[in-house]
Amino acid sequence: MMPLLTVENLATHFHTRAGIVRAVDGVSYTLEKGQTLGIVGESGSGKSVSCYSLLGLIPMPPGRIESGSAHFDGGDLLNISKDELRKIPGQRISMIFQDPMTALNPYMTIGAQLMEPLLLHKGLSKEEAAKRSIEMLEAVGIQDAEQRMNAHPHQFSGGMRQRVVIAMALITEPDILIADEPTTALDVTVQAQILELIKSLQEKNGMAVILITHDLGVIAGTCDSVAVMYAGRLVEQASASSLFHSPRHPYTHALMKSLPSMNTDGKELYSIPGMPPDLTKPIEGCAFAARCEHAIEACRGDIHLHSIMPDHATACIRAQKGEL
Amino acid sequence: MIEVRRPLLEVCGIKTHFPSQNKGEMVKAVDGVSLELRHSEILGLVGESGCGKSTLARSILNLVPPTAGTVYLNGESIQTMSRSELKKARPAMQMIFQDPHASLNPRMTVFKTLAEPMLAHKLATKETVKQAVIELMEKVGLAPRFMQKYPHEFSGGQRQRIAIARALALKPRLIIADEPVSALDVSVQAQILNLLAKLCAEERLSMIFITHDLSVVRHIAQRVAVMYLGRVVEEGTTHDVLKNPQHPYTQALISAVPVPDPIEERNRQRIILHGDPPSPLNPPAGCSFHPRCPIAEAQCQQQEPKLGNLHDNHRASCLLLQKKFVE
């Protein structure tokens, strides 16, 4: 079966006064229908930029997509005209951002914002669009949906705004939903509601989800497969169960060790020595080598992501050789 | 005879109400909280946004004077102090904020940031202040050679270290840390948590650690108080509260925390609360949690629960737990 989305060797660089920032530097992954892919990494690891690049959301300049392809439904998202690309976001691929207040227009009613993509992309009549919008609001758990259509975003709480944003993203029944830290700004009890909601809607429509987050707990509960990013590159990619039970890259391992967990009492936490590398300077070999306790001379050489098991790939050469 | 030491901090029935934009209505941000903080103890204060945990912290320090209630520091009431007495008491109580980018003055070097409070409170002279700054920086793990740098030249974790050093400069007894690691990445968060735990043990400091992250609390605090809509709903040792939560809100909160383990995460029973926390402007009658509570009964809509003792050091406020209360 053809994957729904195939991203190959994507590189997005920013040409700034301080130098070329290699925000995303050769990232490849595939996404199947109905699958949930988690992209995890710390701030500045390139997880958001790698997804924004697919939808043409990178400001150019200073950004530039240096190489790569993203095959979706027979076309290459990185190599199509603006007019063609316009038809894809909002219809085939939707996106949810971290802060619902910046994604909603404060001057427009919720109803007008929900109906807009239907009128624009689906060519529905106003009455049909309104009907679909009310149904969608009900599906994401907003009470009194019909009256709420006339409300403005500031009249909603944070959790409800994020529900509206999700309703907006899903109203065109997209094939792919890209969710960039959809619950980071929300409280845990509301986060649980929102994740549950995305899951149930996914089961109904069979859409694929790319979930970008820094929270390993959220990944564990929702994703089928996980990609770990560090300094603009993928360092490990595996099924969720394989990744959490036997991480095969020292960075993933260190990240998990430094989490304060609900089940270990007040011992000193592990912390990764040093700091992430400066992305304006080209990195030779493994980007994590400078902070890695297992690094050897060969880590400064050529590094590639390789499968070591059917559902597990790592960029650590020592793990590839079976030394770790 | 063994002398029973008074707790470092006693908070008695604090209420902090703000007038709302609608005339006559009051936002009851904090509505009757009593707490104790013993010497060298770390108390975790947990709750969702809007539950009043930050307002409580500011009221304890009298930064937002409480509407009612008293705060005793070492047995002395902060509310009845005169301005000059309060100024003398201030060094003993310090605060660390969530966002070090906002809490540090961008136009002050690290040296100036750390030296100014010590000079103002005469804890150092012009001659000794440089040495004092060097010692502070070493204590929080910053190289003293960065003394003349400005906050923007540091990373988020390093900036939080500067904020911690500034709080320590006046040799406080009490530190209130308001979400000190929430803005940091996991690996940096671990460094700052380790530092805070180490400093509290070494300097015999007491700390109120405010956070929404239960796994952080579990790691650092000896006791936990859970807040909901301006009140403490459960309080006890970290172990008791997190392993054996009694209040339905605490139970839901704990079950909502995602665990980084796919098998456990997919198999566990999760209590999903419905709706959002209600507005403190118009809290529900009876138990303020009843509209979202999965086990609420008719009595919960009318009667207000009181915090009762379950057993040693474990208190909860729920009508359905009342028969378990001990004197």
Secondary structure: number of strands of chain B:
12
Helicity of chain B, as a percent range: 25-40%
Give me the number of helical elements of chain B: 11
Main beta sheet of chain A, described? 8 strands, mixed
Q: Within the largest sheet of chain A, what's the order of strands?
A: 6-7-8-3-9-10-12-11
Main pleated-sheet profile of chain B: 8 strands, mixed
Q: For the largest beta sheet of chain B, what order do the strands appear in spatially? A: 6-7-8-3-9-10-12-11
Structural class of chain B: alpha/beta
Assembly state (oligomeric): heterodimer
Q: What is the approximate shape of chain A?
A: globular
Please tell me the overall pLDDT of chain A: 86
Description:
The complex is a heterodimer of chains A (324) and B (327). Chain A has 12 helices and 12 strands. Chain A has 324 residues and is an alpha/beta fold. In chain A, strand 4 and strand 5 (75-76) form a beta hairpin. In chain A, helix 5 crosses helix 7 (158-170) and helix 7 runs parallel beside helix 8. The two termini of chain A are 34 Å apart. The model of chain A has no long low-confidence stretch (mean pLDDT 86). Chain B has 327 residues and is of the alpha/beta class. Chain B contains 11 helices and 12 strands. Chain B has helices at 53-60, 83-89, 100-103, 110-120, 129-139, 156-168, 186-203, 214-220, 238-243, 248-256, 262-267, and strands at 9-19, 26-37, 42-46, 68-73, 76-77, 93-96, 174-178, 206-211, 223-228, 231-237, 308-311, 314-316. In chain B, the strands form 2 sheets. In chain B, strands 6-7-8-3-9-10-12-11 form an 8-stranded mixed sheet, sandwiched between helices. In chain B, helix 6 runs parallel beside helix 7. Chain B starts with 8 loop residues before the first strand and ends in an 11-residue tail after the last strand. The mean pLDDT of chain B is 88. At the A-B interface, helix 7, helix 8, helix 9, helix 10 and helix 11 of A face helix 7, helix 8, helix 10 and helix 11 of B.
